[in-house]
Design goal:
Largest sheet: 6 strands, antiparallel
Distance between the termini: 48 Å
Structural class: alpha+beta
Radius of gyration: 26 Å
Number of strands: 11
Number of helices: 10
Oligomer: single chain
Strand content: 15-25%
Strand order of the largest sheet: 1-10-9-8-7-6
Length: 376
């Protein structure tokens, strides 16, 4: 992340662009579409994992202005065991890899480390303490928890780490379905593309009014402020800085990064009048932490399905109740014979836990005996 230098090689308004910007944008848009095609088989597999384990950390299509994003996503999770197991595994990995309460970073200079005496060990110790302070203040640990949860469920996870004036670093967790990762000839994941949504207000705040297209500028300047929450699709690319002279990034940067408007507030992907880039710059180091569980594999806070808090268990009870009360015929294979009293006990417990008297009535109709009230 060192030597982060912003190189804008284009006009201040993205409605126009230099020849090098237009060549680079055409190249990157084509590459993004190719990555999308190659990812499709992994995409469909990940959708099934998300449906039953972690639905709010997956995107099937990046679509702007979705007004129903806070609604229940699906009814697939009848048993939250998978979500809880993934959460516990991720927590275990987190505790072993980067525990916030225990030392896990050690700096060395040759054979000298911070446990020895002398001016160099003292300096190394101070660097370690500063590093821990930065990680604690920047939200790094929260982002790593999300990163490891994604890794456990989907087998692939990504974490962007940028320099930040206020917190030294800032961390971003793209969700699965939002990004595309490709590898170079040495199997290193050094090509990263993604699509995400920003509101008009976020876009101007992040990239500057002067670097946005006239569509965004007009919406931002609207006196009523009604368009500030409208969304646009932003495309983002990080990749090795090949052909630097052709694409207008200085050759001493190993990697390049670009952002451009991929879709407007009312237009589909690629339907924007913008021709240039919102941002175009070079890096000496890769800003992405990417991990796969297996070799050969391809919003900023954690969001967990409500099933992890018991909603999935209640859905399972509601699914089984009609069969238990002979309102429906069970058409699946039975592992053991059905016992009315055992299910009635579960309904009594559910009645206490969810404060739902109807479950009590169901249990009594099955001939169950009321059990003592255990606090939940």
């Amino acid at each position: 992340m060192n030597a982060l230098v912003d190189h804008r090689q284009f006009a201040r308004n993205t409605d126009t662009a230099t020849a090098s910007d237009m060549r680079l944008r055409a190249f990157q848009q084509g590459r993004l579409l190719g990555l999308r095609s190659n990812r499709y088989s992994w995409w469909t597999h990940a959708r099934e994992l998300a449906d039953f384990i972690l639905p709010r950390r997956y995107k099937w299509l990046i679509t702007q202005n979705q007004q129903s994003r806070g609604s229940p996503i699906n009814q697939h999770i009848l048993d939250s065991t998978g979500t809880l197991a993934a959460r516990n595994l991720a927590a275990g990995i987190f505790s072993g890899v980067c525990p916030p309460t225990r030392p896990w970073i050690k700096y060395k200079y040759g054979r000298i480390d911070s446990t020895q005496s002398g001016p160099i060990p003292i300096w190394l110790k101070q660097c370690e303490e500063l590093t821990y302070a930065v990680l604690a203040a920047s939200g790094f640990y929260t982002s790593m928890a999300v990163f490891l949860f994604d890794l456990v469920v989907f087998g692939t996870a990504a974490l962007l780490i940028y320099e930040d004036f206020d917190n030294v670093i800032t961390c971003i967790n793209p969700c699965f379905g939002e990004y595309y990762v490709d590898i170079d000839g040495k199997y290193r994941p050094v090509i990263f593309y993604r699509e995400f949504t920003y509101t008009i207000s976020q876009t101007v705040d992040e990239f500057g009014w002067e670097n946005c297209s006239s569509m965004i500028q007009t919406a931002y300047d609207n006196a009523s402020g009604a368009y500030l929450t409208r969304e646009v699709i932003i495309a983002h690319a990080i990749e090795p800085n090949t052909d630097p002279e052709k694409y207008g990034i200085p050759a001493h940067f190993k990697y390049r990064e670009t952002f451009w408007e991929w879709g407007g507030t009312t237009t589909p992907q690629g339907g924007t009048i913008s021709k240039g880039f919102l941002r175009k710059r070079g890096f000496n180091d890769f800003v992405l932490l990417e991990m796969n569980q297996q070799p050969g594999g391809n919003a900023r806070c954690i969001a967990v399905s409500t099933a992890s808090k018991g909603a999935g268990i209640r859905t399972a009870l509601d699914f089984l109740r009609p069969y238990a009360m002979n309102e429906k015929k069970w058409e699946y294979q039975e592992i053991t014979p059905y016992n009315n009293k055992e299910f009635a006990t579960l309904l009594f417990q559910a009645g206490y836990a969810y404060k739902e008297p109807q479950y009590m009535e169901y249990a009594k109709s099955l001939g169950g005996r009321q059990i003592p009230h255990f606090p939940y």
